[in-house]
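TL;DR need structure tokens for one chain.
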Amino acid sequence: MRGADITQHELFSYRTLEDRIPPNRPLRKLCAVVDILLKTMDAELAALYANTGRESIPPARLLRASLIQVLFSIRSERQLVQQIDFNLLYRWFIGLTLDGEVWDHSTFSANRERLLNERITRSFFERMLAWAEWQQLLSDEHFSVNGTLIEAWASMKRFEKNDGGTPPPEGWPQPHGGFQRRDP
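>> reply
TL;DR here they are.
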């Protein structure tokens, strides 16, 4: 007998986001490393924010989202936010719940700009890369990553503000505000 193609939406979900991510996913190991790195950076991150006022996107989530953008070669912040909205693996890695609202791409850009103007992003990517190498998590068995993107984020000091003259080379990360790589 042919089954009917009827979708009845469930009122409740009995599986958590944690349950939905397979235990052998490579991002699970990387997530543990990122958790440790972010704990070591807590004082640095706290120094960037005032004690009063409106809450921002948590900086740990900004950094995790930036890492997702690099690892999965997501071209723009708009696409990154869209992918975070529907990709359960990305939601889990960043720390959003199933029903957690994803921020607007312009809010993400504005909040991340604060981190990009500081040494925080560079420090995070340098530490993340060192830990990943030490833990032997960098392998072509699991997934491939354009290593130049990680190196570029880890060395933001080699980027200078692009005032609209020369377009940045294709393939390099394009943080909000337009940056391009300087030749050493």
